[in-house]
Amino acid sequence: MGRSPCCDETGLKKGPWTPEEDQKLVKYIQKHGHGSWRALPKLAGLNRCGKSCRLRWTNYLRPDIKRGKFSEEEEQTILNLHSVLGNKWSAIASHLPGRTDNEIKNFWNTHLKKKLIQMGFDPMTHRPRTDIFSSLPNLIALANLKELIDHHSLEEHALRLQTEAAQMAKLQYLQYLFPPQPPASSNIVTGSNQINNIGAFSDMEAFNLLNSLASLKDSPSVSSLSQLDLSASSLQGINDSIPFSRLPDLQIPCNYQPPPTKGMAQASEFTVFSQGGNSPISPFQFASSSTPFPPSVAPPVTQISSMVNSLGDASSPSSYGEEAPSVWHDLLEDPMFHDIA
DNA sequence: AAGGACGCCAACCGCGGCGCA
DNA sequence: TTGCGCCGCGGTTGGCGTCCT
C-alpha cells in the first residue's frame, strides 16, 4: 500500500553524488528547508528522486553530522543499545548525536558484529553462542581438568578449588544453554526472535533438568556424568541464576590452550557486566539496574573472563538462526557428549 | 608489479507506518 | 472504512580502496 513510485521514474540519475549536486542540495535546503522531499529535486534543479536527496542529506550533507572513527564510548553505547533495541538503527542513532543510522548500521555490520562473533557471542542475542560446537573448547577444557585431577597429586585445597571451578563451569554452561525466561511484564523491545526463543527454558525447568541429571548420575549407563557433582548446594547455584560476574573467577586448566583467535586479543576491549539474576539481555548491559538508561557515558572497561573467551571459536559456525537443544535427552544420549564428559 | 581477495561504506531498494481525503 | 501519497526504516548492493599472494 502506498508505495512511492518516485524511483521507478526513468531518466533520474542514480549512483554517487557529484560535488555540484551536493552544492545544489545544500544551498536549497539551507534556504528553504527540505519541505516535501518529493518536490525538492525539481525545485532544487536536481535530476534525482526525492528519496535519493533525503538520503544524501541525512547521511552525508547534514551540517551536524559527526564523521570519523567511533570512539570507545560510542562503541559501548551501540553495544548496549543494540542488546536492548536490536536492529533499530534509527533508535540507536537517536542516542548518538551526530551519527546516522546508516553509519551505525555499517559500523555494526563491519566491526561490532564480527567482534562479538569472535568473542563467542551471538550478535543478535548478545549471549554466548549456544551451539555445541562453539562450546567444545570449554568442554574439552573441563575434560582436561578431570585428567589433571586424576593423574596428578595435588594439594587437597587446590584440588577442591579446581573441582568447584569445574562444577561452576558446567552449571554456567547449562545456564547459557537455557537462560531464564524474561518476565512476562518485560517491556524490553527486542529486534530478534532469537531472544525470545532462547529464553524458552525457565529457571525451574533448568532446575528440574538438573535434578533429573542428578538421578541419572548414578546410572551405569551414564557413569561419565558422575563427574558432575550435582549436590543440593551446587544445584542451588543454578536456581539462583548464576550471573556472568562469577565467570572471571573461573580458571582454565593449565594445560588448556584456547584457540588463537583475534577475538582473544580484542576481548579486553569489551566490558562484561553482571547479568543479575534474571536479566534476559546482554552481558554488555550495565551492572547496576539503577544505572539510568540510555547511558550517557560508558562504564569502565574491565577484562572479559577467560571462561567467556573460551566459549566460542571464531572459526566455528554461528548459532545465529539456530536453537538451543530442545530436548536434553538428545544431548545426553549423544555419543559426543559422553566422549567429552 | 600484477591481480585476486577482502573490507568498508555510500547509496539503492522495497516494505511498512502514518496522515489525509 | 478505504485508498492514496509520502516518509522513514532496515536490508542489501556495488564500487572503490587496501591488503595479500
UniProtKB/TrEMBL annotation:
InterPro entries, alphabetized: Homeodomain-like_sf, Myb_dom, Myb_TF_plants, SANT/Myb
Subcellular location, record wording: Nucleus
Residues covered by the Myb-like domain: 9-61, 62-112
Record keywords, A-Z: DNA-binding, Nucleus, Repeat
HTH myb-type domain sequence ranges: 12-61, 62-116
GO molecular function: DNA binding
Family annotation (CDD domains): SANT
Protein name according to UniProt: Uncharacterized protein
Keyword hit for Nucleus: yes
Cellular component aspect of the GO annotation: nucleus
Natural source organism: Salix viminalis
Subcellular location, principal: nucleus
